[in-house]
């Protein structure tokens, strides 16, 4: 029976532990056996959220089929002692898999496991991870990355995606899908999915007029929304709509609508829809425009790249 060992450090994030643990526990319930173990250098570990977790201080014997998961934490806590980091290295050297959730990637880096490998972490600390571990290739804005049995994820809910990925790799996509359904996770997101949805990415401004415009576009993103309609909805001129929207978000209204369409189309494709069905569901005339836009690096359209021809072929 494969074992999943969670290495906990002080001020660990509760969901970074609970999310992946729930995935493997659910997989176990569905007939894919796992034993979950929680270890730390002290018998109790306080989470950032205030809950104190009781742990083992003695490590179990590990086999190559076993998995070590290092959940993320908050603050300047050093991840683990030299002896604990050596355990991570030894497990990987013996053929085992080691995963880091969010800041847990730093522990893997301190163990030397990120050198020469691709990895990721939460978007707020990606630059810090790259600074601390310059020999690692930090992939920006990815949900999770696997490179030579080293798995790193964005953290928080991204840890669930990484765990589902590991279940799929070991037991097949159907097993991961069954676990996701049992957990009421709407979908198993691909590792290359953006960490921050367009619904949230451009919402940090304080312009209420633009927020109203975004509400309208989000509600009717599959429709043709000419500037005239947006201007009438806000009582502004078309030129003012474009100026306010671009100043607040860095995008034109059309580019924002296209980003929403691409995100929704991606969800549909991951759930088995054909390109033609997904394209028509989000407002494109056919699959050609969808394929063209999805093939662009980064997939995010900037203001100068958007045209009515692309959005409404």
TrEMBL record:
Molecular function in Gene Ontology: DNA-binding transcription factor activity; sequence-specific DNA binding
Keyword DNA damage: no
Top-level division of the source organism's lineage: Bacteria
Pfam families cross-referenced by the UniProt entry: DJ-1_PfpI (PF01965), HTH_18 (PF12833)
Record keywords, A-Z: Transcription, Transcription regulation
Domain HTH araC/xylS-type span(s) in chain numbering: 211-292
SUPFAM superfamilies in UniProt: Class I glutamine amidotransferase-like, Homeodomain-like
Protein name: AraC family transcriptional regulator
């Amino acid at each position: 029976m494969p074992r999943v060992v969670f290495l906990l450090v002080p001020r660990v994030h509760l969901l970074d532990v609970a999310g992946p643990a729930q995935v493997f526990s659910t997989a176990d319930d569905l007939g894919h056996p796992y034993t979950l173990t929680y270890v730390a250098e002290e018998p109790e570990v306080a989470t950032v959220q205030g809950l104190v977790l009781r742990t083992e201080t003695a490590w179990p014997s590990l086999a190559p089929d076993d998995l070590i998961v290092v959940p993320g934490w908050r603050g300047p806590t050093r991840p683990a002692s030299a002896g604990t980091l050596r355990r991570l290295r030894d497990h990987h050297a013996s053929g085992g898999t080691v995963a880091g959730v969010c800041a847990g990637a730093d522990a893997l880096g301190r163990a030397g496991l990120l050198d020469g490998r691709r990895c990721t972490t939460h978007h707020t600390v990606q630059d810090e991870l790259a600074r601390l571990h310059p020999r690692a290739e930090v992939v920006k804005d990815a949900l999770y990355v696997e490179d030579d049995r080293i798995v790193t994820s964005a953290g928080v809910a991204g840890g669930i995606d990484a765990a589902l990925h590991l279940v799929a790799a070991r037991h097949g996509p159907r097993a991961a899908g069954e676990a996701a359904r049992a957990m009421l996770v709407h979908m198993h997101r691909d590792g290359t999915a953006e960490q921050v949805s367009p619904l949230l990415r451009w919402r940090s401004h304080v312009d209420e007029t633009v927020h109203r415009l975004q509400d309208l576009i989000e509600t009717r993103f599959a429709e043709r929304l000419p500037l005239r309609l947006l201007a009438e909805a806000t009582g502004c001129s078309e030129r003012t709509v474009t100026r306010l929207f671009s100043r607040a978000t860095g995008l034109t209204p059309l580019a924002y609508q296209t980003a929403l369409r691409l995100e929704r189309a991606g969800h549909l494709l991951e759930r088995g829809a054909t390109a033609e069905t997904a394209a028509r569901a989000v407002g494109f005339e056919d699959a050609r425009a969808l394929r063209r836009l999805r093939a662009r690096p980064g997939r995010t359209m900037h203001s100068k790249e958007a045209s009515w021809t692309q959005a409404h072929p």
